[in-house]
Design goal:
Layout lengths: L2 H9 L10 E6 L4 E4 L8 H12 L9 E3 L2 E9 L3 E7 L1 E7 L4 E7 L11 E10 L3 E8 L4 H17 L3
Antiparallel strand pairs: 1-2, 1-9, 3-4, 4-5, 5-8, 6-7, 8-9
């Protein structure tokens, strides 16, 4: 089976009428083995940050996980094996005075202190195998659990195959 078939038939599969927004299988160096048409263009520093978090769990927590410039707050995972994140919304507030306008940008990062409405309706799951990164990006109505199941099952299968 080709890598593209794994993306098309396994990662982009339909679950209860929904599917991932985007998915890819990448080498740990960031090389694209296969991807969906909607998968964002990743920057080298984004892959470097992901690999560093797998080597030193928790390094993404202060800054967040970025994929194609979109920020995801790392919310849970399995150290060295899985990174899971939730999309972050940015709120811009503009204050006007007699002399000038001020723009304050709030990025909510403390999950416990934030109402759910400030989080984006989507997220990401990244599973590391011995040679690859399996990445799934979702938006509602797909649930985080469904995304995790899709990505992690394929990752576990590839690990069992020695990949």
């Amino acid at each position: 089976m080709s890598w593209q078939n794994y993306v098309d038939d396994h990662l982009m599969c339909e679950i209860e009428g929904n599917h991932l927004t985007a998915a890819a299988i990448l080498g740990q160096d960031g090389s694209v083995w296969a991807q969906s048409a909607t998968f964002p263009q990743l920057k080298p520093e984004e892959i470097t940050a992901i690999m560093k978090d797998f080597e030193e769990p928790g390094t993404l927590a202060p800054t967040g996980l970025y994929l194609g410039g979109t920020k995801y707050m790392v919310i849970q995972g399995e150290p060295g094996a899985v990174i899971r994140g939730k999309k972050v919304k940015v709120i811009i507030v503009v204050f006007r005075t007699c002399y000038r306008s001020f723009r304050l940008v709030y990025i909510y990062e403390e999950m416990a202190a934030i109402p759910e409405c400030y989080w984006g309706a989507g997220g990401v799951c990244v599973k590391k195998t011995s040679q690859a990164l399996i990445i799934g990006i979702y938006d509602e109505p797909l649930t985080p659990g469904q995304c995790n199941m899709i990505v992690e099952r394929l990752g576990d299968y590839l690990i069992d195959q020695g990949l």
